[in-house]
Write a structure and sequence with these properties.
By secondary structure, the protein is an alpha+beta fold. It has two domains: 3-138 and 289-381, no CATH class; 155-252, lipopolysaccharide transport protein A fold. The chain has helices at residues 3-35, 46-82, 85-91, 96-137, 256-259, 271-283, 289-300, 304-312, 325-353, 357-381, and strands at 149-152, 156-157, 163-173, 179-187, 193-205, 209-222, 238-251. The radius of gyration is 28 Å and the shape is elongated. The relative contact order is 0.11. One of its GO terms (cellular component) is ATP-binding cassette (ABC) transporter complex. It comes from Paraburkholderia pallida.
């Protein structure tokens, strides 16, 4: 890196770290206040609340990194403009395009940091955070759903070679990935109910089996009509054969990783888990729009750092008479908040209108990138 690039990098990184931890401390305080509503329920003590909020901190950092980069760069360039440092750089031959390329170099480590937190640290600590809360409260994940969690299993081969479809209803998903109050409805290729299987609990056994306990298996066998009488498709007659089993090993494509989608929102899942869950939904011909938008947002969100740095560069061309440093920093905060708002808004609008996921995820960044380039063109001319 050149001397002026090292100077830019040092100033921006110092301000970035300070702003990042200042914002994370502020969000930690607000999240802790919100978590106090649960303190006192079950074994959920204040120490658990602090631990839960601390485990959520990496995801908060992931969300505010682009905004922190924007505010840090605006602060540094506003200070340089106030002290006429950036004017000296321009007189020495620093062109706008050259300054922009140097600024993007400075942003590369921040982009890599965003990917690291968003893909490795954040999803892991979010799941730990949810498990800490659920275990302390003694509750299960699906207590907010009256009928439990419904999942369509992949097509499986029956003993007679016929294709079958399963609909699995999980009453509760415990933090240790144990499922309870399980109901499994199996249909044949013509979507006729052929089997109802009830189990009190189940545990996953790799690579692809669930060990169900206290199982009641009810097989529905079609009864042929009397001779010389046509079968009534609207009023079929079945014979039920019920069997009680202490244990039953069920082969299934469902895994704890797929069910763990209930522990965290799609935006806080890793791209790997999102991709696996999208595959599962696609195999079962279910809607994947929400999760496709989430995975594209995960791919593109770190590059928002570059967009924020482009937006910050025009502030270096605004002299002190155009506004004091504090006003510029406040403008940067408002600009960053508006980006987060538009980014979230486009995700919901894209889901409602079934827009293409890449376009939905990329549009907010492209809008703000265009604003930054237009701002650079305007200040360069004036």
């Amino acid at each position: 890196m050149r001397i002026y690039e090292k100077y830019f990098a040092r100033q921006i990184y110092v301000a970035f770290v300070f702003i990042l931890f200042a914002f994370s401390g502020l969000f930690f305080f607000f999240d802790l206040i919100n978590e106090l509503n649960s303190v006192g329920h079950g074994n959920y003590k204040f120490t658990y609340a602090v631990l839960r909020v601390a485990l959520q901190a990496p995801s908060r950092l992931y969300e505010i990194i682009p905004v922190a980069a924007l505010i840090a760069a605006i602060y540094v360039f506003a200070q340089m403009a106030a002290n006429s440092e950036y004017t000296i750089f321009r007189v020495s031959g620093l062109a706008t395009g050259q300054a922009l390329r140097s600024l993007l170099k400075v942003g590369v480590p921040i982009v890599l940091l965003t990917y690291l937190i968003g893909e490795v640290v954040g999803p892991y600590t979010d799941q730990l955070s949810e498990r800490v809360r659920l275990e302390a409260l003694g509750s299960a994940v699906s207590t907010d759903f009256k009928s439990g969690v419904w999942v369509k299993d992949t097509l499986t081969k029956r003993a007679d070679g016929e294709q079958a479809t399963r609909f699995v209803n999980v009453g509760e998903l415990l933090p240790d990935a144990t499922i309870t109050n399980v109901r499994i409805y199996e249909f044949d290729s013509q979507f006729r109910l052929t089997n109802v299987r009830l189990a009190k609990s189940g545990t996953f056994q790799p690579p692809g089996h669930w060990l169900l306990k206290d199982v009641t298996d009810t097989e529905l066998i079609g009864v042929p009509p009397p001779p010389n009488q046509p079968a009534d498709a609207l009023n079929p007659v079945y014979r039920a054969q019920q069997t009680a089993l202490p244990e039953y090993s069920l082969r299934s494509e469902l895994t704890p990783q797929i069910l763990s989608v209930l522990l965290v929102s799609p935006d806080r899942m890793s791209m790997f888990n999102l991709f696996r869950y999208i595959q599962h939904l696609s195999e079962n011909h279910q809607d994947t729009q929400r999760y496709e938008i989430a995975i594209w947002r995960k791919v593109l969100y770190p590059f928002a750092v570059f967009v924020m740095l482009v937006l910050s560069l025009p502030f270096a061309y605004l002299h002190t008479r155009a506004g004091v440093v504090g006003v510029k920093v406040f403008g940067g905060i408002m600009l960053g908040m508006s980006f987060q708002l538009v980014n979230t808004l486009f995700s919901h609008v894209g889901t409602l209108n079934t827009w293409p996921a890449p376009l939905t995820a990329a549009t907010p960044g492209l809008i703000y990138l265009a604003l930054g380039l237009l701002g650079l063109k305007w200040v360069d001319r004036h």
